[in-house]
Structures are given as C-alpha cells and as structure tokens.
Amino acid sequence: MTLQLAWALLAPLALGAAFLRICRVRLRDDPLSWFAWAWPCGCFLLAASLWIAVVLSVPASAWFVMPMPALAALWFAARRAVDVEASPAAPRITWPLRIALAFVVVLFCAHFAKASGLPCLLGDEANLWATKAKSLLLDWPRGEFAAAQQFTPHPDYPLLNPLLQAWIYAACDGVVHFESRWLVMLCGLCVPLAVAAGVRRCAGDGWAAAAALAIALEPEWLHMTTAAYADGMVGLGLVIGLDAWLREHDTPRRAHRAMAAMGCAFALWSKNEALLYLAIACAAFAAAVVIRRRALPRVDARVAWIALPLALFACQFAWNRWFGLSNDLFGKGGKGGSVPELFMAQFADRMIPVLDAMASALCDPKRLHFALALPFLALLFLRRAALSRALFAPTLMLVGAVVVLHLIYVGSYLVLSFHLATSQLRVLFQLVPAALVWTAATARVVREGGR
Amino acid sequence: MAIHTKHASESATAATRRGQRLLLLACVPLPFLAFSWALRLPEPFASAMEGLRGHEVSLRSGSGIPREEEASLRARLDERGLVIVYFPLDAIAPDVRMPLVEMLESRTQIYRNLLYPTPRDVRMAIGSAELDAALLGLDGRVAVVVDLRQDGGPSPIATGELVYERGEGVRMRHWLVRGGPR
Prior knowledge:
The structure holds 2 protein chains of 2 kinds. Chain A is mainly alpha-helical. Chain A contains 20 helices and no strands. The model of chain A has no long low-confidence stretch (mean pLDDT 90). Chain B has 2 domains: 2-40; 66-178, no CATH class. In chain B, strands 2-1-3-5-4 form a 5-stranded mixed β-sheet, sandwiched between helices. In chain B, β1 (82-86), α6 (94-115) and β2 form a beta-alpha-beta unit. The N and C termini of chain B lie far apart (95 Å). Chains A and B meet through α4, α5, α9, α16 and α20 of A and α1, α2, α3, α4 and α6 of B.
C-alpha cells in the first residue's frame, strides 16, 4: 500500500511536469511558477484519465495504470515541441521571498499534521465531496451511481475533487478518512505559491512575499489545507488563469495561453461558482469588443486552447444530463422555488441584510477579503488603469462576481443567517488570490502611468 | 500641440498620484492584518500534535463511535439498510432546541459518512412522528434506530430488538427493526 500511495502522489506531479514540458515552462527558468502550476495541471490530467476509466468501467484495482498512457503521450508530445518558444525566464528569487515561501511550507506541514487528527466525517467536505468520491468508487461498478447521488447535497457539482479523492481510495484499497484529502490539500499549498508567482512579476519579490504570507495566515487557507473542500481549487484555477492571461498580454507564448486555459478549466471542474465567474469574464470581454471596439482575436491555432475549458464544460454538462442531476438552487429540485423565483419573493426582506453582510466582509481590516473591495475602488478612482486592455475583463469579473455571489443569497432557499455564516467568507475567498494578483497588476499600470 | 501634450502629461501625473493614494489606502489594513496574524500563528502549531496520535485513535475520538458499535451496525445492515438517529425534542423548550438539532445533525452526518455504503441511507428523527415516517418507507429493509434518549425508557418501536447498548458517557441503544412501521 505504501508503494501505491507513493505512486498516487507522484503521478500528478509527473503528469504536470510533462504538461509543462510541452508548454516549455522550465523549472530552471521560473521555479516558483513551475511548482505552483505543475501540481494543478497534473491533478487535472490525472482526474481526466480517471474519468475515462470510470466511464469505461475499468475496475478500481487497475486505476493505477490509467495515468501511464497519458504520461507516455505527454512525454512523446514534449519531445516534438522543442521548437516552441520557451516561457521567459524569471529573475532569481531573492532571500526575503525564499524565507516567506519556506515559512508557508512549514505552516502547511503544521496544517497537514493537524488534518491527520481530523477524520473526514463532517460538513460539505464529507457530505458532498467525499460521498461523491465513494460513490464513484463503490456505486459506479454496480450501476447505482445516479441513485446514490440523492445522498449528496449538490448532485450536479463537478468531479475534479471527487475523482482525486477516489484515486486515493483506490490506492488504499478502500475508503479512508484521512489520506483522501492529500491531493486536494496540496492544491491548497499551491495557492500562495501561485499568488507569489503572479505578484512578483508585477510588483517585485517583497510584495510577493507579503502576498504569500497574507494568504497563508488567513483562516480560510487553514480550511483549504486541512480539509478537502473545493473552494481553494477554484481560487487556484482563477489565479493561475489570471496570471497567465496577464503574461500573455505582456509576452505572447504558448505556455501562457495553455496555462490560462488550464487555469479556467481547473476552476470550472472544481466547483460551480467558477462557471459564474467565467461567464462574467466572457461577458466583460464581449463588452470590451462591442463598447471599446477592440478587435476580436484572430481565430487560429493560438486560440485553440480555449477548447479545453469549453470541452470540459460540455463533458460535465453531458454527464449531469446523462444522470438527470440538477442544481439544488437553480434546478427543479429547488426547495420552495428556484433562485430567480425566490429572488423576487425575498428581495424586500433580504436585500438590505445581504448588502450589509457584503460591506462587512469587504471592509473588515482583519481579513484579506478587503482585497475584493479594491476593484470597486479602482472603478471609481482609477478607471483608466482598471479598464486598461489587459485588466478590463478581470476587473469586471471580480466586481461582477462579488455582486452576483451576494445576489444568490437573496434568492436562496436556506435561512439567510445560516447560509451567510456557513459559506460567505469561504466562497468569497475563492476570488481573493486572483484579487491580489489583480492589485499588483493594477499598481504596475498606475506606476507606469496607465496604458 | 504643445498645450495638448502638456494637458496629457498633467492628467497622466494626476492619475498616477491618484493611483498612489489608492495604493496607500489599500495598505491601511496591513497593520491590523499583521496583528491578527500574530495572534493566529500559534494555533496550527499547537493543534498539529493532535495529528500524531494515529489514525485509528483519531477516527474513534473524532467520530465518537467505538469500533464495536461500527462493527455491530455493519454486521446487521446491508447497503439497502437504514440508520435512524433518534432523539425526541418534542418536550424541549424552543430556545435550547436549535443547538440540540445541530448536534443531532452532526451525529447523523458522522454515522452516514463513517458507514457509507453500509448503509447509504442515514436519517435523523427528532420526534416520534418523524421516526414513524422514516420507518413507513422501510419496505422490507432492515433498520437500526440509534436511540440517544438518556432516560432509558422502553423501545420507541414495539417490534424493536435491542442489539447494542453502551452505558458509559452518553447512553446509547440500538434497536433493530425489520419490515414495516411499529
């Protein structure tokens, strides 16, 4: 079992390394970005190969071979990609940033040890994500997967997190209540690394160190690294996607386009909120084309990467349709009506308390969520920088996401105080890593006198 | 032309100054953050020791379900079986009712997530009417009622067979029910 567990941990790293090799992101050029990106890319590819295994009804005992064909294909493709321009080399990491990152890793180890004493039995971590994982492992082979989804609170939620947990169950020959979190927790570790990689490019190592520490000392990061929630994975996908999008505006490279697509796909496959964020970003992009008369990107091989999140969305949609799984807030299963119906009915009672909760979250100086207030302020006082070419869609995405997330509370069937208390800060924190990178990018535009 | 250039450079300078002020404003919460970080810092290191007790010990203390109780439930139920966590709250005053409901909800989650898939179906009953309703849909399946009443009253189900009992700490009895309602 130890060997199988070692392979379970090594496989995502090997897949991620192979994917970055295709994109010509080299460890020696930018080690921080490499470490922040390799793990989520590997987890995504591992989960994709496991999904194929599940659909083909490959027995769980043979799942351990599933990453091997993908690995072989990736290494073969990497050998053919030698003519691709390498991602630009980053400056050497300075000592303050090294110390900050070392501290983040030490803190992660403490969280890891803490999680080893907490079985995965309570909350959405167990009721939703782990139950889905158990269902993929145990119910699928007997054709009972669809029926078993009645025991999860959100049957339509995407499968990246459950597939990663099911991979560990398969490696441990059955359900385990501690080790199953490991891959998801390591995604949590990648969040401050990805933020630091994004911030240092725009604002230097000092601010990158501060941003990494700020994330790591936030209580929400404790949840990301001691439990198998998917909120950290959404945050990781978004921050990677935004960083790569900004890099692509500075220096167009295959690596940046690939990572932007991978970041979006990773977030999209982690939790449904990402669909909302990306829909807002697409609407903002369309608005930029229409209002600002920006040219549409030429449809050629360079935009082919967009097919990755689109294909993933189509597959997840088809999966839910296949099993008749619908959202408990928006679908037919909504209690007392769907979100739009309840929104109209509860608007008068809930709007003020929801606005109050939003203002409290964004103005609390002791929590990092105040970073989400900055795009609002920038829209008021720094319109030129906030709506510059590269930042137009990200700014509107962050502002729109914060507003729309709160509007959902108005139309929720749950008791408002309960729903806010159990999810508001956790869900909002999905946007905070991206907001920190956005702040660094906006500051750079301001420093350079706007563009 | 020169006037235009001068205006453009002045407005750019003003924008930069405005941006710098906003960035300074963004830095205002940093001392508060640093203070709250310092207060939070010892917590993860202190609780890290809890993880060094071994998984079996952590599982038992974290779930509150001893190995024998889990084995007893698994031995009597198949995957189609039903566990009902029962604690009547009919006579409880409304102001103390909510925390008890939350506690029972947590117990129910723990049983469900520890036992899955043997059985998959774990429910909570906070009154005799809810217990009846849960047992009505039994339809030939086997159910175990986890009776958390502390007063030690008779079986809440006429046909219930006592299959497990724990007296120390929180009192607990398991009643096995086959078939239809009581």
